[in-house]
Design goal:
single chain; 66 residues; 27% helix; 2 helices; three-stranded antiparallel β-sheet
């Protein structure tokens, strides 16, 4: 299973907590910075705080066979 799944879109303040939680649960986490207009949701509060916005992707850690 190598597919990445989008699990959240949020500002940099909360993204680290989201990523830490998924890593603790055994997932790999990938962050992709996006522009506010790419979020597909209201980003007014994030823009007012001048926060970067990220799309969060996860996937199960791959078994290395070791």
């Amino acid at each position: 299973m190598t597919d990445w799944h989008e699990v959240a879109i949020d500002g940099e303040t909360h993204v680290r907590r989201i990523a830490d939680m998924y890593e603790e649960l055994g997932f790999e986490v990938r962050l992709e910075e996006i522009k506010p207009e790419e979020a597909g949701q209201c980003t007014k509060c994030l823009r007012e705080r001048n926060e970067k916005i990220y799309r969060v992707y996860t996937r199960r850690k791959q078994d290395t066979g070791e």
